[in-house]
Structure to design on (181 residues):
């Protein structure tokens, strides 16, 4: 996969989408983020991001595995940890809630799949909204919609526990805020 730029007609005619395909390939080939950060490709990524700061008013990027690094758990393990945390928080909130972590996990996976299929497309990319995923998860579990907030608390708590800041973040924040009022 190679780097390409394209106009984003669906969002704004002045929006430019840049895809770093070779960086994705290098990250995938490195095995983990720490190994990737020690490669010349990581320096090239940093240089390209720093160059973009001077050309744009808004720079939007996927922060996971760039600015925030997840631990070694698989996505399925992370989702199961979230489901387990949700069951504890939900039963603390309302003692008669009877949901198993497995049921919550399955509901989360189906809800995410639906959210990603039905979300708005921007340049062919569809991103599911976490709020929609949480709401549909609790509805699937036949719980009151107010439990979506509990799901979000569980989701964010696990993400916080399983994330760490990338070594790139300080340089990128400094570059992004250079010359800011």
């Amino acid at each position: 996969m190679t780097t390409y730029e394209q106009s984003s007609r669906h969002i704004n005619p002045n929006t430019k989408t840049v895809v770093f395909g070779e960086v994705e390939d290098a990250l995938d080939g490195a095995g983990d983020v720490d190994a990737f950060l020690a490669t010349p490709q990581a320096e090239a990524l940093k240089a390209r991001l720093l160059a973009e700061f001077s050309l744009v008013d808004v720079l939007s990027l996927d922060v996971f595995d760039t600015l925030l690094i997840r631990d070694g758990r698989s996505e399925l393990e992370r989702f199961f940890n979230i489901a387990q945390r949700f069951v504890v928080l939900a039963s603390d909130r309302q003692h008669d809630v009877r949901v198993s972590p497995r049921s919550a996990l399955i509901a989360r996976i189906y809800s995410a799949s639906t959210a990603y299929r039905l979300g708005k497309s921007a340049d062919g990319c569809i991103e599911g909204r976490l709020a929609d995923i949480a709401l549909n998860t609790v509805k699937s579990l036949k719980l009151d919609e107010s439990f979506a907030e509990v799901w979000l608390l569980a989701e964010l708590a696990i993400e916080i526990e399983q994330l760490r800041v990338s070594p790139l973040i300080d340089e990128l924040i400094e570059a992004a805020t250079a010359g800011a009022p």
